[in-house]
């Protein structure tokens, strides 16, 4: 069944119920789960000042508006008086490259390489550099959370901030979106997606195809999620408070 067919079967009137048969790694057999259909509004960014003084920014995607939202979130962080920041990029599939470069610029001096598009000598490489907002000093203590759902722009931002010693990474290997694609129109209703370049981290090494490894590996199992436990966040909090 293609995705569009599946979506047509799953969608329905708001408030009605659809039954999904879910198979998941670690389960002995599929389970039926009933879901109430609703209009879901997913926020781009959520900020939280925890009672322990750690400020958490959850970033869900890199949209055209994300740089402005991130700037506002950082203003909240500064005004909170905290120096401990956790940036949660788990499940963030990426989006606009320029958004990732802009966000990295808040932490890096002007001219520092954020990411390079390597065209393997078929074209001149494109180097994306920090715009040098660089508003934080050495008092900043920062940890970035990632998992297998962290891809593309998430990997670019996390990799750059770790390379320059701004942040440590906690979680599991990222997705491994080390390639750049272009969409070429073939006919009025068909297109071809072609890989044209590789993403290189500031050290000149390609983002690994099996993902960027964390500094501290912590799993979050399906049992953890069902019990509303978050050992990855707990570890990030522990580390950022110890820095």
Summed up:
With 243 residues, this protein is of the alpha/beta class. The protein has two domains: 1-40, no CATH class; 43-242, 2-enoyl-CoA Hydratase, Chain A, domain 1 (Alpha-Beta Complex). The chain has helices at residues 3-10, 66-80, 97-104, 153-163, 222-226, 231-242; strands spanning 17-22, 31-36, 45-49, 55-59, 84-88, 113-118, 126-129, 141-146, 168-171, 179-187, 190-200, 216-217.
Relevant terms:
243 residues, 2-enoyl-CoA Hydratase, Chain A, domain 1, 2 domains, six-stranded mixed sheet, 24% helix, 28% strand
Could you explain how this protein is built, in words?
With 243 residues, this protein is an alpha/beta fold. It folds into two domains: 1-40, no CATH class; 43-242, 2-enoyl-CoA Hydratase, Chain A, domain 1 (Alpha-Beta Complex), CATH 3.90.226.10. It contains six helices and twelve strands. The strands form three sheets. The chain has a six-stranded mixed sheet with strand order 3-4-5-8-9-12, with helices on both faces. The protein has a four-stranded antiparallel sheet with strand order 7-6-11-10. It has a two-stranded antiparallel sheet with strand order 1-2. A hairpin with a 5-residue loop joins strand 3 and strand 4 (55-59). The protein is globular, with a radius of gyration of 20 Å. It starts with a helix and ends with a helix. The mean pLDDT is 95.
